[in-house]
Specification:
Blueprint: H1 2-8, E1 18-22, E2 26-31, E3 34-39, H2 51-55, E4 58-59, E5 63-66, E6 71-74, H3 75-79, H4 90-106, H5 111-122, H6 135-147
Antiparallel strand pairs: 1-2, 2-3, 4-5, 5-6
Length: about 150
C-alpha cells in the first residue's frame, strides 16, 4: 500500500504508527514504519468505525491497539490475516461497543442533567420503579375458588 504513504508524503524511516486512510475495500495503517492494508473482509469491525476513531492507533513490537474502539491485533494478524480468523463476531462487538458508549455518555455532566437531578432531589430523590401489583395474585386465587 505504498500508494497511501507516497500520496501523503509520510516518511517510513522511523518507528511511526498512524492511520493513513480508507477505501471502499479497507483501511491503510502505518505500523512501526511499515504500511499495511487491512481489508474489511478480514477485519470487519473497522467498517463500522469513523476516521476519528481509527486515527487513535498505537503500536508496540507485539501488536496494534485501537483503545477507543476496543480492538487489539497482533502484528502477525496484519501480515497474514488468513491465519487469524476473527475471534469475536461483529454483532457481539457492536453490542459491547454500544454498552461502552452508554456508559461513557452516562458520565457526561451537563447543565440539563444537573437541573433534572435537582428537581428529583426536591421530589425526594430518584423516582422508584413501579412495584408489581398484588391484585393479579388475588384474581388468580379467586378464580381457583370459583372452580371448586
Amino acid at each position: 500500500m505504498n500508494s497511501f504513504v507516497a500520496m501523503l508524503g509520510i516518511s517510513t524511516s522511523g518507528n511511526k504508527t498512524c492511520f493513513l486512510g480508507t477505501t471502499d475495500e479497507g483501511m491503510a495503517v502505518l505500523v512501526n514504519g511499515r504500511d499495511y492494508f487491512l481489508r474489511y473482509a478480514d477485519f470487519p469491525w473497522f467498517e463500522y468505525c469513523g476516521a476519528t476513531e481509527l486515527r487513535d492507533v498505537t503500536a508496540d513490537r507485539w501488536g496494534v491497539y485501537w483503545n477507543t474502539i476496543g480492538i487489539d491485533l497482533p502484528i502477525e494478524a496484519l501480515e497474514s490475516p488468513e491465519r487469524f480468523p476473527e475471534k469475536i463476531s461483529v454483532e457481539s462487538w457492536l453490542k459491547a461497543r454500544s454498552r461502552n458508549a452508554a456508559r461513557i455518555l452516562g458520565q457526561v455532566k451537563s447543565a440539563r442533567k444537573a437541573a433534572a437531578s435537582r428537581r428529583n432531589g426536591l421530589k425526594g430523590g430518584r423516582p422508584r420503579n413501579p412495584q408489581p401489583t398484588r391484585r393479579s395474585a388475588s384474581v388468580k386465587s379467586s378464580s381457583k375458588r370459583e372452580r371448586v
